[in-house]
Amino acid sequence: MTAVCDDPGVADDEIAQPVPCVRCRRDALLNMAGHCSDCIADMGLNHVEEHGTWRAELAELVKSGELAGA
Ligand SMILES: [Zn+2]
Question: Which residues are 31's β-sheet partners?
């Protein structure tokens, strides 16, 4: 078997770009509508209202096409 690592359409460093979370200020590779996965989980468990606000923001981003596949 030969491993093929030749995908001209994908630039690794563009994908793996850490984005600081707006809530906890930590750099996170997984960042949805400004929030890292930790904060999303925390909001879902402990801050339901905040979570609802975030979900609305996320829906807006998806609708405007800024964020795909969420
Ligand atoms: Zn966070």
Answer: 36
